[in-house]
Amino acid sequence: MVAILEIGAFISSLIVGRLGDVIGRRQTILYGSCIFFVGGALQTLATTMAMMMLGRIIAGFGVGMLSTIVPVYQSEISPPHNRGKLACIEFSGNVIGYTTSVWVDYGCGFIKNNLSWRIPLLMQCVMGALLALGSLIIVESPRWLLDTDQDEEGMVVIANLYGAGDVHNPKARDEYKEIKMSVLLQRQEGERTYADMFRRYRTRVLIAMSAQALAQLNGINVISYYAPYVFESAGWVGHDAILMTGLNGITYFLSTVPPWYLVDRWGRRPILLSGAVMMTISLSLISYFIFLDVKRTPQMVVLFVMIYNAAFGYSWGPIPWLYPPEILPLSIRSKGASLSTATNWAFNWLVGEMTPILQEWIKWRLYLIHALFCVISFVVVYFTYPETCGVRLEEMDSIFGDASTVHGASSVQDESASLMRAGSPFSGADLPTLVIDEDDDENIKSQMQTSGGEDRSVGAWLNRVVRGRSESRGSGRSGLSSHGRYTPIGQQDNSARSGSGNRN
C-alpha cells in the first residue's frame, strides 16, 4: 500500500514534462492539485480496499505532477541571488506537511473508530484545495510566457518580480532581453524531443537524475516511511514509537531552516558534501547500536536518527529539488525535470518495497548499505557536480559548454524581429517602440500621488491580474495605454481613470 502512490507519481511525472510545456506551469499546478484532491477524497470515503488503492494511485498522479512542475516554476520565477533560499523554503513546506501528518496520526491513534484513519487521509483534500486556490492567483512563469511568445504578459510578470512593477525598470528590461534572446537561440537547436535532449544535454540530464536517485538511496525513506518500525526495533513500542517519530519530524523541519541562509552563500556543493559525511556517520552508528542491543540502544538510536534526519534535511533534502531545474536549459527544463522527478519516484518505490524485506533479512546491516550510498554520493558530487550558486539560469551554458552558439544564424535574426514588433515590450536595445514622454510620465505620477495612489505591491497586482485577465486579453495589446506606451503597474489610461476613479 505504501508503494502504490509512488507508482502513480512515477507515471504522471513522466507525462507532465510535455504537459508543462504546452499548458504552462500555472495550469499544471492547478490540475495536479485537483487530481490530488480527488485521490484524497476517494481514500477518505473508501469502503473497500479497491477504492482505497484507486484513490491512492490517483493521489500519486497528482503528487507526480506537482513534484515535477513546482520546482521548475520556483526556479523560473526566482532571481539568482536567492534562488537557492526560495527552493529551500519550498522544501521546508514539504517537511512541515510530513511533520504535521505524523502528529495528526499520533493524535488520531487515540480514536477508537474509523475516524482514526479517515481524518489523516482527509488532510490530503485540505492541502490539495489550498494549493488549487493558490494556483488561481499566482503569476505564470515569465520564462514560459516568453518561450510561447506571450511577450507582453511575460514583461509584466518580469517587471513585478524584478522592477517593483515598473516595466521601464532597467533591471527588468535587461532580464527580459536576456531571457528572450536565450529562447530564440535555443529554438535553433531543433526539435525538443527526449532523444535530442539526451544527445545534446546528456551530462546535465544524468546529473539531474543522479541527484534524485542518490537522495533516495541515501536512506531517507527508511526513516520517513518506517520510522515507527525503526524505533520499535530499538526498543520503543506502540504510541511511544509514533511519538518519537513526531519529535524526529520537528527536528527534521528545524534542520531545513539553516539552508535558507547558507545555500546562496556557501553554494550547493559544500552543503551536499558535508551532508553526505554526516549521514554516513549517523547511519553507521544507528547500525552499530542496533547491533549491540544494549540498555542505551533506544536512546542512542533516537539520537542518531535525529542527527541523520537533520543532516538530510539540511542537504540532500532540498538541494536535489533545486539543482536539476536550474542546470537544465529552458528548452528542455520541463522534460528534464520530469525525468529527474520520475527517477525520484522510481527509487522511492524501490526503497519502499525493499526496506521491509531487507529489515527482516539483514536487520541492522540495512543501514550500512545506505551509509555506503552516502559515500558514493560524496564521490559523485565531488567529481561531477559544478557549482551553480549565483549563476543566472541563462548562463548555465557557460558551466557545461554544451549549448548552441549559433548567434549569427539568419533564423535567429528573423526570430529577433519578434522583439521589434509593435506589441513587444522591447524593440531592440534602445526600445524605440516605447515612446516615453518624461513630462507625461511625471504628470501621471503626480496625479497618482494626489489621488492617494494605488497599491503597487505584488499581492495587489496579482488580484488585479485575476480580475482583469479577460479584459487585458481582449485589448490585443495588453498593458499599453492610449499613448502607445506601456503603463506601469498600478496606473491606468487617463480616460479609463476619469471614468472609473481610483481602484485599489
How would you describe this protein?
Helix 9 (194-217) crosses helix 18 and helix 12 packs parallel to helix 15. 71% of the residues lie in helices and 0% in strands. It has two domains: 3-138 and 191-391, Growth Hormone, Chain: A, CATH 1.20.1250; 139-190. Mean pLDDT is 80; it is low at 405-420 and 422-504. It has 23 helices and no strands. One of its GO terms (molecular function) is carbohydrate:proton symporter activity. Residues 1-389 form the Major facilitator superfamily (MFS) profile domain.
Short account of what is shown:
By secondary structure, this protein is an all-alpha fold. The chain has helices at residues 4-23, 25-44, 49-77, 83-108, 115-135, 142-147, 151-162, 170-187, 194-217, 220-224, 227-233, 239-255, 258-262, 268-292, 297-314, 319-327, 333-361, 365-384, 397-400, 410-416, 438-450, 458-475, 494-500. The longest helix has 29 residues, at 49-77.
